[in-house]
Amino acid sequence: MQKLLMILIDENDTFGDLSLYEAICRRLIELGAPGVTVMTGIMGFGANQKIHRKRLFGVPDDRPVSIMVVDDEQELRGKILPVVRPMVTEGLVFLADVEVIPPVAGQ
Amino acid sequence: MQKLLMILIDENDTFGDLSLYEAICRRLIELGAPGVTVMTGIMGFGANQKIHRKRLFGVPDDRPVSIMVVDDEQELRGKILPVVRPMVTEGLVFLADVEVIPPVAGQ
Amino acid sequence: MQKLLMILIDENDTFGDLSLYEAICRRLIELGAPGVTVMTGIMGFGANQKIHRKRLFGVPDDRPVSIMVVDDEQELRGKILPVVRPMVTEGLVFLADVEVIPPVAGQ
After folding, report:
1. CB A39 to CB B36 under 8 A?
2. Nearest-by-Cβ selection for B85 from C25, C35, C101
3. Residue B26: other Cβ atoms inside 10 A
4. CA pseudo-torsion sign B71, A25, A19, C11
């Protein structure tokens, strides 16, 4: 079964010398993820209510980032999440059921 | 059970003196939502076919906005939707099942 | 039952003389889709690992694009997907269950 993995973090989150979202993308490529889509938002807040308000109304450059991967559930649970989940110390990681519509025959 | 709440509106929608998406974010903070992610798109159309075409091919500054919240279903249905749903007179509001992947032990 | 249709393609993908995402939007309007939201991301990779890396670290102008439509399942399967799916030769097309929250009574 295919699942959508969505990771919601901040653009300014870091992982070693890299931005966290770039580090996660590199690992996803290494792990053989079939595709990744990274999008940024315009505002967001996470775990800390004080930071929320500051971000929401004061700091325009710490944007939320979403990373989406669609893959087989066993790949996501067995191979990708064990590596990627520990990289996200603050942020949200979730799975959702999806039905992938394959290319039409002969395409 | 956790659900994703997604609200799709337009960037130019207003609520009193505020943009609607900012007004919704303020209410979500007041209501104790654990996190919010707001993203803008590049084009969209909604209920009115005429407006669609105009937006789609003529007006680049009325972008779609998505607001995402992941929370317990009872919080969303009992506390957040009763306040936020009436704020959205045009637009789309929907819930989807998600499985939140918790931080690894010791993180 | 309502479903979310999500199409993930690249901003530079073409369809005839149009960008693919614009071509898909035009068809969705013609097909009577109740609404469409188009968003662009900041990075992505798809089917070809070599292209991935190049895109990811070298080419900032080939951004991923997501197209979202929420509609009745029978409309999506019977009317929209037969037209739109063949337009996407590279990219990802999937459906997800959603529960649309209707406007409150009297709104």
Report:
1. no
2. C101
3. 15
4. negative
- Closest residue of C to B66, CA-based? C37
Give pLDDT tens digits for A59-91. Answer: 555 789 999 999 999 999 999 999 999 999 989
More confident residue, B11 or B97: B97
- SS3 label, residue A87: helix
Task: Burial-class residue A70 by CB neighbours within 10 Å (0-12, 13-18, 19+).
Answer: buried
The total of other beta-carbon atoms located within 10 Å of residue C68's CB is: 21
Q: Which of C43, C53, C96 sits opposite A38 (nearest CB)?
A: C43
Which of residues B62 and A71 earns the better pLDDT score?
A: A71
Read off the tokens for A17. Answer: 């010398």
Confidence band for B48, pLDDT divided at 50, 70 and 90: very low
- Cβ of C45 within 8 Å of Cβ of A68? The answer is no
CB within 8 Å: A35 and C46? yes
* Chain A residues touching residue B104 (CB < 8 angstroms): 85-86
Residue B18: φ, ψ to 5°: -100, 160
